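Quick log. Single chain, no ligands specified.
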Amino acid sequence: MAQAYSDDLRQKLIEAHQQGDGSLPVLAQRFHVSVGWARKVSAAFYRSGSWARPSSGPRGPRRFQSFFSISSKLTTRPNLSLSS
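-> predicted structure:
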């Protein structure tokens, strides 16, 4: 599985772009990353103001809470539909 790029690399890319060291395609080549990744990181930075990786969402049992909630409701009321 591919490894995620470090926050340090994200910071260096954004700082180089802000200082006018080159366009995103030029900087992507310099830092050995894809142009798509450089654009994605740049867009995320200008949206959020942070170069840290966004969290990937809930992990573990919490992500199944809604499934179990729906499952228990269907068990008690089998005729339940999405519009109910």
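The domain at 1-52 is CATH 1.10.10.10 (Arc Repressor Mutant, subunit A).
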